[in-house]
């Protein structure tokens, strides 16, 4: 995150290209773990920005650990998402064009712990996923629902 903070000092709120990683974590009933963001109140899977020099899969694991306290074993690639529908303006005005690498993983147990980035979490069956999904993750959730 320091890299993005340093860039923001130079470019302000102007659009940046941001590479991110997220994980769709499924429980034994194929329900999806979603986290409620503290900045926007929208739902999305655990994930975040890839740091300079970081392997994307390691970034996905790090973000899950930081945001949920969970350690994941096997990850499989779900897809790479990019394009204008992943453009996002954060509540503070920062603009980003996301390139997001999404993984799938199975919940293998453990206690989910929140950090300050989220106010809640819940398991959702595909038909019960809420409407207020974080805008840049909507294409991911739409593809997930078609599985």
Give me the secondary-structure topology.
Blueprint: H1 2-11, E1 16-26, E2 32-37, E3 43-44, E4 47-49, H2 56-68, E5 76-81, E6 87-89, E7 95-106, E8 118-124, H3 138-145
Parallel strand pairs: 1-7
Antiparallel strand pairs: 1-4, 2-3, 2-8, 5-7, 6-7
What attributes characterize this protein structure?
147 residues, alpha+beta, Nucleoside Triphosphate Pyrophosphohydrolase, five-stranded mixed sheet, 3 helices
Low-confidence stretches: none
> How many β-strands, per DSSP?
8
> What does the average pLDDT come to?
95
CATH topology: Nucleoside Triphosphate Pyrophosphohydrolase
| Category from helices, strands and their pairing | alpha+beta
Global morphology: globular
Give structural notes.
With 147 residues, the protein is α+β, with helices and mostly antiparallel strands. The protein has a single domain, classed as Nucleoside Triphosphate Pyrophosphohydrolase. Helix content is 21%, strand content 34%. The mean pLDDT is 95.
Provide a quick synopsis of the model:
With 147 residues, the protein is of the alpha+beta class.
